[in-house]
Design goal:
Elements (H helix, E strand, L loop, with lengths): L1 H19 L2 H8 L3 H7 L3 H15 L9 H17 L1 H16 L1 H27 L9 H19 L5 H16 L5
Keywords: DNA-binding, Transcription, Transcription regulation
Protein name: TetR/AcrR family transcriptional regulator
């Protein structure tokens, strides 16, 4: 039931935005009783927060290629694939818009990104341990430096990042990290 409701929340958010999201409609879309939805989630904000929590729980694990550039490339490609996915890209855009309107959604989205960054931080800490990067490199900053240009392209142009964007983001982050810019 949770899976159906979470999917329905995402579908509705994509179609009507946060302002148009209605728990009765979510129940109908999910094929469950609206009493069940109201009892378990209670508010639209709670349902959207659960959607984001589900995204954290079901996100892909990090790759371990054995080298910083390969690991960060795997991360960047995952971000690019997610943004290119017809549903996932639209859902992330809808969640970002919803976060501007609702603090609970904003907090859930911050938790999502914090969790995703935490999953990928070992790419950087492992690179420091191997001597690829200077000691004291801020792992979260390096991971954000890879993802940020990809999200920026998506949010400002509406286009999913291309392979050239992935390469540029990874190359720039690696070069900056090697130069000590993230210490």
């Amino acid at each position: 039931m949770r899976e159906a409701v979470v999917r329905a929340v995402g579908d509705a958010l994509i179609e009507v935005g946060l302002a148009g999201l209605d728990l009765a409609d979510v129940a109908r879309r999910a094929g469950v009783g609206k009493t069940t939805v109201y009892r378990r989630w209670g508010t639209v904000a709670a349902a959207v927060a659960d959607l984001v929590d589900d995204m954290v729980e079901t996100s892909a694990p990090r790759a371990d290629t054995g080298g910083l550039a390969g690991d960060l490339r795997a991360n960047a490609e995952l971000v690019a694939e997610t943004l290119a996915d017809p549903r996932q890209g639209r859902l992330l855009a809808a969640l970002i818009a919803a976060a501007r309107e609702d603090e609970r959604t904003a907090e859930a989205l911050r938790r999502f990104y914090a969790a995703r960054i935490a999953v990928w931080e070992p790419c950087v800490t492992d690179a420091v341990a191997r001597g690829e990067l200077p000691a004291g490199t801020d792992a979260a900053a390096v991971v954000r430096a890879v993802s940020a240009p990809l999200y920026y392209r998506f949010l400002t142009s509406g286009d999913a990042p291309e392979q050239a964007d992935v390469t540029r983001a990874v190359d720039a982050a690696v070069a900056a990290a090697e130069a000590g810019a993230y210490r």
